[in-house]
Amino acid sequence: MTRVRLTAKERGAEVLEAAVRAFAASGYEGTKTDEIARMAGVSQPYVIRLFGTKQQLFLAAVQSVCTRIEEIFREAAEESPELGALGRNYKALLGEPELLLVLLHGFSASGDPAIGDCVRERFGSIYTLIRDLTGATPQEAREFLSAGMLLTVMSAMQVIGPNAIPMPWAEEIEGTLGN
Length: 179
What we know:
This is TetR/AcrR family transcriptional regulator. This protein has 9 helices and no strands.
């Protein structure tokens, strides 16, 4: 079988995808760059050459995840520029649970100044995007984000989303959120 040679950009995208999966599973502190390299099918020195440090790779993963979340919200707003449409598209995020897990790990690693700066800036840009796309008031945007964070935590507990462990309380909560 012939192996296809990828460009550095293509290989970097593969490494970043592997990093998102690895950081989602083990968090910032619990993930090793050699584990990411194995998942991407490259050497650990190559990962470092592409991204510099584990911290820079984690920041790239957080940036990638936040960009994807913003894409999902933009797609929803194209259909209907209201919070309800964004909420309905939140199910797309539940279908990509690694996105939500990396975001949660970013929040928990925000004690690191560089990570905290990145996570705060990106969360703020998601908040601003929600308001810009829908015309939501600050209170409406806060309530929307609160519901989204509850779904994110429930996704991390694996009580909603793909392969959910059925829990009556989780189904009740999810039903009250109108998603």
